[in-house]
Each structure stands twice: as C-alpha cells, then as structure tokens.
Amino acid sequence: MQKAKAIELDVAVVDGVELKGSWNRMFEPRAISEYDLSVLEEITAIPGAESLGYCYQCGKCTGVCPVDTVGDYSPRKIFRRTQLGISLIDSPDLWLCTTCRNCLRVCPKEVNMIDIMPAVREQAVLEGKAPEELLTAFENTARYGNPIGESPRKRVEWTKSAGVPIPIMSQKKAPVDVLWFVECYPSYHPRGKQASAALARIFDALHIDFGILGNEEKCAGDSQRMAGEHGLFEMLAEHNIKMLSKYSFNQIVVTDPHAYNAFLHEYPKYGGEWPVQHYTQYLSEHLGDIQFTREIPYRVTFHDPCYLGRHNGEYEAPRRLLNALPGMELVEMGHCRETSYCCGGGGGGMWLDSFTRDYASERLSERRVREAVEYEAEILAVTCPYEVPRFEDAVKSTGNAGKLAVMDIAELLAYSMGLVDSLAMAN
Amino acid sequence: MRIAVLMKSVPDLVEDIALDEDSGQVLFDEMTYVPSEWDDQALEEALLIKEESGAEVTAVTVDTGDSDNILFTALAKGADHAVKLVGDYDPSLTNRRRAQIFADYLRDQAFDLVLSGVQAIDDIDGQVPGLVAGIMGWPHASVVTEVHSKDKGVVLRQEYAGGLVAEIEASTPLVIGIQAARKPPRYASIAKVRQVAKTQQIEEVEAESPDVPTLAVRRFYKPVASGHAEMIDGDVEEVASRIIEILQERNLLRR
C-alpha cells in the first residue's frame, strides 16, 4: 500500500493565476491512497459521477444540506462512506438526496450531486436496487404519462371546473401566443387543480391568448430523470416535443419549476427549443395589467422552490407578485432565496416518502412548516406543484392545523383580483 | 429446462370500462390495455428459476394488437426469446380461444414447463393455465407461489385456504398457474426496453383461429349491494370523519 504524501506543488498555475504552496491544494486531488479506493473508483467511473472524487471533506455541504438536519446524510458523508468501501449503489443514502442544489452552491470543489445522483441512481435502477415505491412512480409515468397513475384520458378534466374557457390546441387549430404546459399535479391533484383553475382565470382576465396540450401532454419528466430513469425522461421529452411541434406559439409558460428546468436545459438537447418562462416570471411582466380589488390582510411567507431559485436563479418574480398584493405583509424566513430549505419533493423525493421515513426524524416539509410557524406566518405561499400537498400534509402532521394555510401564488393573485370567491384560510 | 411464459394484456381499470348500455357488450376497442399483473408474476418466477438453476425462458403472447411492448419488456427483463402468435385476433379474444391457440403452439414445442398467471381480471377470471393444461392433457398446478427445478422435475409451493401451504414434487411437462413470484417482479428500465426493441427480434408464428366452445352472455349488470356494507356518502370532510369514527369504534387506531 502506498503511503500518503503531501502533494502541494511549489507553484501551480490555475486559470493563469500563480498559486503557491498549500493554496494549490484547492485545485489538486488530495493523496488518499492509504485507503482501498476500489469502491470509490467504481462510483466515480460512472459517467456523471466523477466529481464525487473531488471531495476534500471540508463539510460545507453538511452545514447546508436539508437532509442532514433531519438525518445522517450529506454529500461529504457520502464521499467518506464510499471512500471507506460502502457502495453508494447499495446504500439508502442514494435515495435521500432531493437534488436541492444547496451543497453545490457552497462546495469549493464543485462536487456536483445534480450530476452524481441521476448517474448513480440509473445504475442502481439497472441493477434492480431502487425502492419499490419509486419504481411504481416510474411505471405509472411510462404507462399513463403521470407518476400518480391517473387516467391519461382525464388529464384535461380539471378544465371543466375552471369556470373559464381553456383552449386545447388540438381543437383550437390556430396559433396562440402562450402555450401553457400544465404538468401532472396541477392536472390531477385536488389542490393542484384549484391552483390551475386560479391561473386559468388570471390568464383569461388578462386576455392572454393561450392554449394547452390537454391529453396530448405528458409529464415533463425532469424529476424522473433526477431519480435515475433517464430512458423514461427521453421517451417523455420526445413525446412532448413531438406534440408541441405540431402547433404554433410564441412561448411556453409552465406551472412547474421542474418542467421549467427541463424546458430550459434538457429539451433543447432533443430538439425542443422554445422560449420558456415560469408563470410567476410571465405574470410579473404583466403586473401593470393586473387590477387588484381585494386585500389579503395576512402575514405571508414564501418558500423558494429549489428548481426555480437555486437551480435557475429566479428569486424576484414570485416576490414581485407577492409584494403587489394589497394588504399583505411579506415576511422572509431565515432560509430564503439562495439558502431556501427544500420541501423534500425534488429528485424523486415526491415518490419516496415511505422509504425516507426510516432514515429521517421528520419530513423536510415538516421542518419547513415549523419554520414558517416560527415566523408567525398565516399563509405559506408556494409556487411549485409539489409543495401545496406536501406542506398541507406537514401542517397537519406537525399539529399546526388551523395556524397556517398553504397557497399557490396563483390562488392568492386570483383572490386578490376578485376571480375566486374565497381564500381557503387555515381556520 | 425450457420454460414458456404465457402472457396477455387485460383492460386497464384506470379507465372506465366501456360498455354499450343497450346491448350489454363491452366495447373492447374503446378501452386501453395493460399487461396482466399475474402474468408478470409468472415471468418473474420463470426468470428466478433461470437465475437459480439455468433455464431458457420464452415469453409467448397471442397478438391482439398491442403485444410488442409486453414482449420487449420481457426480453429486457431477461427472457431469452419472445414469440407472438399472429392471426386475425383483437382484444375481444376469449380466454377459451386464447388457451386453444396457446395449446396448439405449445404442442409442437419441447417446453418442460409452462407458467402463466393463475388468474386475470378479464373474462371469467382468466383461467388460461388450467384451460391450456386441460387441452394438452398435461398435469396442472394452480395458485403456486414458488417453483424450483429439481432432478428431472420441479418442487413447487401451492397455497390452500386457511393459510395452508403444500410443497409438491411434480414431473415435467407441467402447466403452472402462478399466484405470486418469490420476489416482486423486477423493473425493466425504459432505456433497456427501447434498446431491446431496436436490437432483438420478436418471433412471429402464424396461428389459425381454432373452433372452440363459446359462452353466451345473457345480461350484464352491476352487483347488487347487500346489507353488509356501509357506503359512506358526503364530501371529503364528512367521509374522512366517518372513517375515523369507524376506526375508533373498532379500536383500530394506535395512539
């Protein structure tokens, strides 16, 4: 076995900058050859997972990892365990990461869990080592185009209760300005449907020329991709791109930050390149056209979705909309913007709640709800379709029923614009 | 050991069953179809036998219009061959006729073991394994949860009422109706299925439509509610409170 030796160079040149002595340790791998690294090397040999080997165990990720606050997990710990010979492919650690991206934000070595997780998970799925409940979500998505296992023929059913006309592209047979990509939870989940109806009414009130794919739409698939089913993602991307390509529109507006991420970064790789905005971005550009008629006299806090904020840098659009609501007081939680906590739904977490329960003292959504209550918020405003169901459940399971209401920004806007009759307050 | 796994798709209950109210006929063309879950169990048990003691596994379906995906998935999971019995068949194919088509094919093949789902949600509970065995005059075991290869035959576990399980030795050839495999059916990743669809072939075998006895449906009707069930009506809140009440009444809530 080789003895470890210091590896500092006298001078290293990094990006044209001369770095002397111990400083260049930041840019060179540390000598860790006193360990049998075969397991680590197996993992870092997987395309996409190379950067796990860059970790020099500073532990910055552990300080910000939302999962570590409720369990014994962080990228640094993953590296250390793998270094000691515990294969990530067999470890429950592999399924606990929600791909919230907070570790990458602080990592000086750019150990990239956003690439590592899907790559290693894909390998585990191939080896039949993925949790059963996640596979069910995959199978549902492959079969029905949504992870919930609902009828693909009923994807468009929510529009009937929206109370305003919602043009479906295959029937409209005319170009539109905005193609609204609705996504799964907004089409099927009872609370998601309410937010969709609210958003439809806002579009209608603003005379936006829009249309939806209806039953031709399938899940955008980004979370399935992060959870290790890249083939499924490809199949969904090809389908959605084919459907979208049939129609003429100027831009896509999405309800779901995960779909936003897919349309922004992944779909172009498959030939699907359109200007895309999250609905909060789109509406914040149309704030001047919005007439507010009702006050929202409550203390409101906002949870930044990981895939809108940290992944794609949008923190202002949702806040511009919230601050425009008359009567309300916006209070920021300690974890906000770049440091926002995670609802636990990303990266496949949405379909792993039973699995995760054995490795966490509480759900991430429960931790977040406690924080919102600590700040004495009466409304927790959200803008990702995973969050209303997750946080509403967490409000109940933490014993805070009646104290905190969870609402999509679209619901708050629609109420304040006089488009829906009541605000479903907690009490 | 050569194993044939007989597979089929059944109406997907995620969609409403399409029924012509006047004639009482099921509108097969208007429904969507999924692989029968018991057939998936049968395939899994066959693959476990293969992994345990070596076997050649062939997945077989009668082509009723959407069998390619079932067969490519079976190949992706580890089946060695996939056979599609083709003829003028559609999803309204009865299990009696399906069993005859399977039996006509199997008769000319040298399979040691034929596995299929013990039941299915389609007509008259499926029954394919029993019918195939009866037509071929082969021995048949039903409601089986485990099969191992042993000497020149198999050892199998058969479930009986009251939680009783029998371990039975049987010689081959044999037809087995699988209730459940030893492990949950494995997952075939979409990338794998798509790759298999590009690189592997499904063998097509012409299958003539046989004459078989048929059943005449006298009427379709919904089951009549008897006095034992309490149907809970109302909105979500009311239904939820009633369920909690019932759980409390029966002392089923852990505090």
UniProtKB/TrEMBL annotation, chain B:
Residue stretches making up the Electron transfer flavoprotein alpha/beta-subunit N-terminal domain: 25-214
Pfam families: ETF
GO molecular function: electron transfer activity
Domain of life: Bacteria
Keywords: Electron transport, Transport
Subunit structure, as described in the record: Heterodimer of an alpha and a beta subunit.
Membership in a protein family: Belongs to the ETF beta-subunit/FixA family.
Name of this protein: Electron transfer flavoprotein subunit beta
Organism: Sulfobacillus benefaciens
Record lineage: Bacteria, Bacillati, Bacillota, Clostridia, Eubacteriales
